[in-house]
Amino acid sequence: MPHVITQSCCSDGSCVYACPVNCIHPSPDEPGFATAEMLYIDPVACVDCGACVSACPVGAIAPDTRLTDTQLPFIELNAAFYPKRETKLPPTSKLAPVLEAPVVHPRPGGPLRVAVVGSGPAAMYAADELLTQQGVRVNVFEKLPTPYGLVRAGVAPDHQSTKRVTKLFERVARLPGFSFYLNCEVGSDLTHDELLEHHHAVLYAVGAPDDRRLDVPGMGLPGTSTATEIVAWFNGHPEYAGLPVDLSGERVLIVGNGNVALDVARILTTEPDALARTDIADHALDALRASQVREVVIAARRGPAASAFTLPELIGLTSACEVVLDTADHDLVIRDLAHEADPLTRNKLEILAGLGQACDSRGGRPRIRLTYGLTPKRVLGEHAATGVEFAVTGTDEVREISADLVLTSIGYRGKPIRGLPFDDVAAVVPNDGGRVLDPQTSRPVPGSFVAGWIKRGPTGFIGTNKSCAAQTVHNLVADYNNGLLTDPVHKVASLDRFVRGRQPAVVDAAGWKAIDDAEIGRGGELRPRVKFTTVAGMVEAAACAPSPPVHQRLLAGLRR
Ligand code: NAP
């Protein structure tokens, strides 16, 4: 009864270190870890101890006898990663080599103090890594009153198990030395230099909040938008809650076929009653109940073998929705299959080859149609989008697809941070292993660090940020130990007063807990939560937090 990793694998590698026989790969020290679509358990070497199940922060691992029907393909998918063997391997006591925690050497300037800007996965994994050391203080600054970044606002609401990683982040937030300063924007409420007066270092883990824009005529017409905006809209992000999303037409066209495109297509075609059991925003649920959409077309500029979506997400999509291809696209899949050697890509192509023909569609729930080899040229329509004109990639042939709503899903994009250098082409902060670099001198900018998408670009999964953040923290601690970070000029105790002077409505851990409790309460029996979708609503809920008992306040004062 070997264990199996399933669709919601977050790739943070926690299972790798929990496994007593090192049967989960690729491990963070192996080549291929950074680009792996998920991690895989070797069914022959697995000793069925279940240690990985408890270590996985998103509940993605189960014994092969306890999988749901939709998870069954993952048995073969895990096995396919390993060479075929006839005999069971003897048990081994070999553990994956654990990355050493960064040892902080005490210095005269007081304990290491780090400001982390952003509160998504990269920020929380960085805080976790820093707080492995006693005495270190981590203050997390977030512009929204709610933490966890894209886990809250980017993971699709029907992927609730992925959102379980917040349980891990909650444990981090309870560690001694950790503080939240939510609803406090660095760059407007506080400056980088001011943060440095209170900390040895500022670590930016602000992600890639913009989306890449498709530079073709007609983008910006009514009826055009981006998939990332739609994701933020259905997740109740306060800046997108009022987005005008018109689902009164029959066809939605999505340009680009990454996992975000799949998320949007799935939500637009899923039975609203099923979504009503998730934490989808009420405004989105209402719009989806009234939706007239019958087909979502996902158009990629390259061929099927180059599909940007991952195999686990394709398996999840095809088990939840009707996904079809036109005959011409079926032919492209067969052509690619004839030449493809990589087993994982072959797996993807085999699933695509087994999809139904668009012309045989059953006509029940709205369907998703995948199409290939189409490079967008312009959005059609004078006053509102009516479709997209494509060139058949590599030819002069023109093809049009009509649509009532055109969404681009061509990736996220980092945006400049005030006071730090920015690489406008890669849309990242130039850095060496997370140390921000001045592009003029190629020397580190003192006290400034980055982790996550603003460091390496918008690729990978939630857990990819664990090793990314660990690398940055190791370099930060090395600089601190080597005396390269300037001591803060202000005492620890002065930060709270300073922040509250700038942003009286700052939300702390107790405030966030009050918001969290209120949202869960609003969800009642049937839903995990009903989110607040305005900052004012969140701040009002945070204000209901009970003030901590006197002994806790005294203790907090002493700790400072
Ligand atoms: P992505 O995976 O980078 O996909 C971008 C898509 O846009 C590709 O199909 C790309 O085509 C296409 N594209 C780029 N420029 C284009 C242009 N000028 N014209 C037409 N097409 C263009 O981006 P994403 O979907 O936003 O995902 C971002 C990251 O988040 C990925 O690492 C993804 O796996 C991750 N994510 C994971 C999950 C999950 O695990 N459930 C969910 C959401 C996101 P080419 O390939 O031809 O460049």
From TrEMBL:
Residues in the signal sequence: none
Swiss-Prot/TrEMBL keywords: FAD, Flavoprotein, Iron, Iron-sulfur, Metal-binding, NADP, Oxidoreductase
MF terms (GO), sorted A to Z: ferredoxin-NADP+ reductase activity; iron-sulfur cluster binding; metal ion binding
Gene that encodes it: fprB_1
Domain (4Fe-4S ferredoxin-type): residue spans on this chain: 1-29, 37-66
Cofactor dependency: FAD
Protein name, as recorded: ferredoxin--NADP(+) reductase
EC number(s) stated in the UniProt entry for this protein: 1.18.1.2
Catalytic reaction equation(s): 2 reduced [2Fe-2S]-[ferredoxin] + NADP(+) + H(+) = 2 oxidized [2Fe-2S]-[ferredoxin] + NADPH
Gene3D superfamilies to which the protein is assigned, alphabetical: 3.30.70.20, FAD/NAD(P)-binding domain, NAD(P)-binding Rossmann-like Domain
Pfam families reported in the protein's UniProt record: Fer4_7 (PF12838), Pyr_redox_2 (PF07992)
